[in-house]
Amino acid sequence: MAHDGGADPGTDGGAGGGQRFGRIERSAFSIGGSHVTNTVVEHGGTATDAPGAAELLAAVRALRAALVHLPRSADRTALDGELDEAAGELAETGAIAPGLPGRLRAALERWAPLVEPVNAATALGTLLATLAG
Questions:
Q1: Which of 34, 35, 36, 59 has the CB geometry, 3.0–4.6 Å to 124, for a possible disulfide?
Q2: Is the pLDDT score of 25 beyond 60?
Q3: At what angle do helices 53-67 and 119-131 cross, to 10 degrees?
Q4: Residue 80: is its pLDDT beyond 80?
Q5: What is the 3-state secondary structure (H, E, C) of the chain?
Q6: Considering the chain, what is the average pLDDT of its residues?
Q7: CA gap 42, 126 in Å, rounded
Q8: So what's the pLDDT on residue 76?
């Protein structure tokens, strides 16, 4: 992964081999291996450029919809539940509650092997990185 000095390149998540999503500025990143099409999203990372609840809700829903195409498993069911809970909070309040970006980031890290080939995970990870402070 290229590192331009303005981004946190992340660290190995350890036992699960997951990737940490840190702060990203003036860069793009992708998740996945060979034969994976990735989406590039660029955000400035400042409070005025940070995504709103509607944008985050759309990214959570897009990832949830993309997971339908993966085989059923206990991990997928657990991630589905976390994404559904986050989507419900965002839809109900119309705001990004403190702690929600961290919970979503942790879910992406925990289930990185499951979501790494999913373009929607890259887009959600990028949005979450702009919310890191």
A1: 59
A2: no
A3: 150
A4: yes
A5: CCCCCCCCCCCECCCCCCECCCCCCCCCCCCCCCCCCCCCCCCCCCCCCCCCHHHHHHHHHHHHHHHCCCCCCHHHHHHHHHHHHHHHHHHHHCCCCCCHHHHHHHHHHHCHHHHCCCHHHHHHHHHHHHHCC
A6: 74
A7: 8
A8: 92
